[in-house]
Amino acid sequence: MSFSRPSPLSSKPPKGIPGPTTRWSSIPTVPAHTRAATWYPRWMSTRAVRSHSPAAAVLLSVRTCSTRRRDALLAELITDGDYHGSMETDLPKAAGRLFLRLQREMFRQVAEAGFDDVRPRHGAVLAYLVPEGRRLSEFAELSGQHKQVIGTIADELEALGYVARVPDPTDGRAKLLVPTERGRAEVAASTRIIAGLEAGIAEAIGADRLAELRRDLMRASTAF
Question: Which residue ranges have biased composition labelled Low complexity (predicted)?
Answer without folding.
Answer: 1-20
